[in-house]
Design brief:
The protein is 61% helix and 11% strand. The protein has 134 residues and is α/β, with parallel strands linked by helices. It has a single domain, classed as Rossmann fold (3-Layer(aba) Sandwich). Helix 1 packs across helix 2, helix 1 crosses helix 3 and helix 3 packs antiparallel against helix 4. The two termini are 14 Å apart.
């Protein structure tokens, strides 16, 4: 099992994304994805942007959302203190810190294309390509 951020979920499920082939390769390597419950809200925001730009219609957005819900194991919000420690010791937002905290709490790798997260937490956060090569 791995922890993925919302962008990784988007890369897999939203058609025509440049990262789609990498996300598919990641899914082939490990199809057990988890994420803090926050991903629901972030993913809805991503879908809303596609809807507003008329890139995906409402039915398509609903279908993708349901697919995501079946794919990702939603985990409770990690410990507040752990999130705040990450925020205090890094330049991450509290949102990004939730993903890092969950990875630390569960001792699972965090897969993200966020270069700042990978740079600041190299022992736990990996890009898709790096993780696939491991």
């Amino acid at each position: 099992m791995i922890v993925v951020d919302t962008n990784i979920i988007s890369y897999l499920l939203i058609p025509n994304d440049t990262y789609n082939p990498l996300a598919e390769a990641l899914y082939q390597k490990d199809s057990r994805w988890s994420s803090p419950i926050l991903w629901h809200h972030e993913f809805m925001s991503v879908l809303s942007a596609y809807l507003r730009q008329n890139l995906i219609d409402a039915d398509g957005c609903q279908m993708i959302y349901k697919e995501a819900m079946a794919l990702v194991v939603s985990k409770p919000v990690p410990d507040c203190g752990a999130i705040l420690n990450i925020v205090q010791d890094s330049s991450l937002s509290s949102y990004d810190a939730e993903f890092v905290a969950l990875a630390m709490e569960t001792r699972l790798p965090l897969i993200t294309e966020d270069k700042k997260i990978v740079r600041e937490f190299p022992d736990i956060a990996f890009s898709i390509e790096t993780y696939i090569r491991m």
